[in-house]
Amino acid sequence: MLRAIHRMAPGLAILLMAGWVALSVAGPGPSGRALEARLVSFLGLSPSSAGGAGFGLRIGGPFRLTDDAGRAVTDASFRGRWMLIYFGYTSCPDVCPTELATIAAVLNDLGTKADQVAPLFITIDPARDTPRVLAAYVHLFDRRLIGLTGTPAQIAATAHAYRAYYQKVESGIGNAYHMDHSSLIYLMGPDGRFEDLFNPGARAADIAASIRSRIARSS
Fold it and tell me: Which among 23, 169, 34 is positioned nearest to 91, based on CA atoms?
């Protein structure tokens, strides 16, 4: 039982983080701030001006990966654009296709403003998701989507920076496996700072509205 709880802990932490973000947006009162502090402590996060949007969370940071054309890229490669980031893998049977379809719908909703957005799909399964595999996959949803991969160490460092959870799960049949992972869409500002977080199932119209309002305020 304890081992099962331990395996659930990272996923539980992600859910609590999402709840904490919602609490921050609502502007917590004194009791809310106490809960906020406990959640930050539980997640092992530290208040930081790098959190962006007043969240106080250190989410995001420098990364060095390889895009779906085989080119080395860093977070600075997308500076000046709003990064819409999702962590997943191409063999994902359900949630990843759903969320990528949502991101594609967001781009269509934004119209010409989509040019200011870099939609990034970062694989958590670099062993199978080569640049070529990523390109074929993400372009099924939208030609503007950019797949990113890297070494296991690079992926781990990037996921850690974004508080994204993933774990390889063996199927017990040969070498087959799947990836257990969190399913959040991150919005980072043109300066690389964390701006917003969207839970699984978020509506494309709501995500587009969030991006559109932020673009308007930054103009």
Answer: 169
C-alpha to C-alpha distance for 210 and 135, rounded to whole angstroms = 27
Is the domain of 140 the same as that of 84?
Answer: yes
Asked if 178 contacts 169 with a C-beta cutoff of 8 angstroms, the reply is: yes
108 DSSP assignment: H
Check whether residue 36 and residue 56 sit in a common domain. Answer: no
| Residue among 185, 192, 159 nearest 84 (CA) | 185
Q: How many C-beta atoms lie closer than 10 Å to residue 155's C-beta?
A: 24
* Domain residue limits at 1: 1-45
- Structural domain count of the chain: 2
Q: What pLDDT digit, counting tens, does each position of 40-80 carry?
A: 443 444 333 333 444 455 899 999 999 999 999 999 999 99
- pLDDT digits 0-9 by tens, 85-103: 999 999 999 999 999 999 9
